[in-house]
Design a protein that fits this description.
Layout lengths: L7 H6 L6 H7 L7 E3 L5 E3 L1 H6 L7 E7 L9 H14 L4 E5 L4 H5 L7 E2 L2 E4 L1 H5 L5 H21 L6 E6 L3 E3 L9 E3 L10 E3 L1 E3 L4 H8 L3 H9 L2 E5 L4 E3 L6 H8 L6 E5 L4 E4 L14 H10 L2 E5 L7 H13 L5 E6 L1 H7 L12 H20 L4 E6 L6 H13 L4 E4 L1 H4 L5 H11 L15 H11 L5 E3 L2 H12 L7 E4 L19 E3 L2 E5 L4 E5 L19 E2 L5 E2 L3
Parallel strand pairs: 3-16, 3-17, 4-15, 4-16, 8-11, 17-18, 18-19, 20-22, 21-24
Antiparallel strand pairs: 1-2, 2-14, 5-6, 6-14, 7-12, 9-10, 12-13, 14-15, 23-24, 25-26
Helix pairs in contact: 4-17, 7-8, 7-10, 9-10, 13-14, 14-15
Amino acid sequence: MSKKVGSDIEIAREAKMKPIREVAAKLGIKEDHLLPFGHTKAKISMDYVKSLKNQKDGKLILVTAINPTPAGEGKTTTTVGLGDGLNRIGKKAIICLREPSLGPCFGVKGGAAGGGYAQVVPMEDINLHFTGDFHAIGSAHNLLSALIDNHIYWGNELGFDTRRVTWRRVMDMNDRALRQITNSLGGVSNGFPREDGFDITVASEVMAIFCLSTDLNDLTKRLGNIIVGYTRDKKPIYARDLKADGAMTVLLKDAIAPNLVQTLENNPAFIHGGPFANIAHGCNSVIATTTALKLADYVVTEAGFGADLGAEKFFDIKCRKAGLKPAAAVIVATIRALKMHGGVAKEELGKENVAAVKKGGENLARHIENVKKFGVPAVVAINRFSADTDAELDAVRQLCAELGSEAIECNHWALGSEGTEKLAHAVVKLADTSSSFKPLYPDEMPLWDKTRTIAQTLYGAQGIIADKAVRDRFAEFEKMGFGHYPVCMAKTQYSFSTDPNLKGAPSNHVVPIREIRLSAGAEFIVVVCGEIMTMPGLPRVPSANHIRLNDKLEVEGLF
């Protein structure tokens, strides 16, 4: 029986947090290896991180989901709940999450610290400025932006074609007015006017680099490899040509250390980095994940959006680059979301509809099959809502059983670790079997073929199409020496196709490639399918309208 659950922020405020040194002590980390930010959060020193390199790795568990819907799936709450559940059954477990961005917090999506009784705390700090990592990343990015225009102002020795400057500016807020701007207006002393624009900080290549780097030396090398523009004869200009890499690293030297916090049940959680799950790989930092693997028997992490984007990039980009070998995957689904994939309108989701669950189950079925194509065994977590009926749950269990996977009902939102105890046992059993993980394609496969392989193998597409200019760009990047990079698909998260309204498991569609972008520092090629927004806007009624301090100077309205 579920208990009455207050708002996320009310629950978080009632949490009995332990001093962060006690949370660290559970992992064997001594206090002098902590860089504290107050009493309940801290960074772990990079010297200590380096000292762990010869330790045996624990087992890595990925939490992913079906294609997201407005009905909600609960991937982060499941990640937190599973971490607590594993600790509840006596396992030494750590969760690894991305840091939330301020844009969604004040926009429409809210924070990203879990919910109900499956949260990480201190919730307000995590969802707001936290340890300042995003500010450091934004500063490093904008330092490079300033150096570009300064270089052009003082003679343009590198020969920038100002029409081909590819490096924009960033800020960690949703502001549509800054998507496209003209800079350097106001006369000769302000530089040479050119078109420019802002992205949100999480869309910065610096963020992707930050999350894929293994140490400060690797970070510096990758920052130097950023291509910031081209000359008139289309030769690339790198950040290292501007001598920007050293100063950018200085701004990031403290941020690169992983952040340690705790769950509501005082279990350890690493929250570090947060790249866009669309034009980047959507996972927390490699440093946090690899550190956690040295400190725990089980590490639970998540990847952005549904498995067609998040899990694929986790496997093909993060695991490939970092040498990670995931032991198992959890695919999160809700009855409500499956009914939406089955054609039910949002206002009708409260009514039992087994037929729609079965129809929408086609989406879940494809995700199960896709995860297994990477050689990773999968279990399904049904994030239960009060209106879900036994008949609807049985339909999902039967579907999963036919595919050789188990579907387990979870109630972590209302019950915390008690609601994921069964899932935790199933994950341990699955992780202790042999995983035969392998990426979907080899490094040496041509970029066009890598893209087609993802579309056909995972999306159920007939093939991919692109105009000649885009196809030539694929060939050009290979000629430049970047053909061995993985591809990072940028498409709608709401469908296996590029049409966000096409629910379920569409097949034999064609995936159109609109453009491709080179992220030479992050070391992947971004393949853009459709319109991708890298600077969101605020809704008509933003969440910011309801966020305030109460008379006790406590934050209200954050969720």
